[in-house]
């Protein structure tokens, strides 16, 4: 059976993800891997062709699979739906040095970059992205399409709802079993923020301690 693997997103992040995808399929040839990006179709990136989505779908390979390497969670969701409609498999990708311990559940389409760590008793939804040096500690619940930028520190007993974005170097204080700290749906935690209390849905918090960024 011929296999064709695509990394959706010919960007800087896509360039980081492609070697992780290749690592998971060591027996495949380089010619069986491509980037997918309508805006850059017809070019090459790091020696791989960049195809339009339509060209990828129409390829003659019997089995096609895609990793979505796009940090914007809303775009990620739209692309995931598109792939489902076209019957294309979602890849889950995990770096070889990722640490995953006991009782960890992860939904489809997840991406765990190098040096990421999931400890124990964790439940994670679909299409989660954990960039390099990020961790999730014990007894956390993470929704769908959540994005961690590099070096996010998500301590124990934290609930993060769908489409939340946690910026690079952010620290989220540990909650308790009876009162977990909650990051609301669609909330944005700014780069380097130190989150010491729950964050409402849809707001942006910044600083140490993190406070809601007021619109001017």
Automatic annotation (TrEMBL):
SUPFAM superfamilies: Trimeric LpxA-like enzymes
Site (Increases basicity of active site His) location in chain: 139
Active site, renumbered: 138
One Pfam family hit: PglD_N
Residue intervals of the PglD N-terminal domain: 5-82
PANTHER family, per database record: ACETYLTRANSFERASE, UDP-N-ACETYLBACILLOSAMINE N-ACETYLTRANSFERASE
Similarity field: Belongs to the transferase hexapeptide repeat family.
The protein, known as: PglD N-terminal domain-containing protein
Species, as recorded: Acinetobacter kyonggiensis
């Amino acid at each position: 059976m011929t296999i064709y693997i695509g990394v959706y997103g010919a960007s800087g992040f896509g360039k980081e993800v492609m070697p992780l995808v290749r690592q998971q399929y060591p027996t495949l040839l380089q010619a069986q891997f491509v980037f997918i990006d309508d805006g850059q179709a017809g070019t090459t990136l790091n020696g791989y062709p960049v195809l339009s989505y339509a060209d990828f779908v129409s390829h003659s390979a019997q089995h096609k699979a895609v990793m979505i390497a796009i940090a914007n969670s809303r775009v990620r969701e739209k692309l995931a739906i598109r792939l489902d409609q076209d019957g294309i498999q979602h890849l889950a990708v995990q770096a070889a040095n990722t640490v995953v311990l006991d009782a960890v559940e992860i939904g489809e389409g997840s991406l765990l970059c190098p040096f990421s760590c999931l400890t124990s008793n964790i439940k994670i939804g679909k299409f989660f992205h954990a960039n390099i040096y990020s961790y999730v500690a014990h007894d956390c619940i993470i929704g769908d399409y959540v994005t961690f930028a590099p070096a996010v520190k998500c301590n124990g007993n934290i609930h993060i709802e769908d489409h939340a974005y946690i910026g690079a170097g952010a620290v989220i204080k540990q909650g308790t079993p009876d009162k977990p700290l909650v990051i609301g749906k669609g909330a944005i935690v700014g780069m380097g923020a130190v989150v010491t209390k729950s964050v409402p849905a849809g707001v942006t918090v910044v600083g140490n301690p993190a406070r809601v960024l007021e619109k001017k």
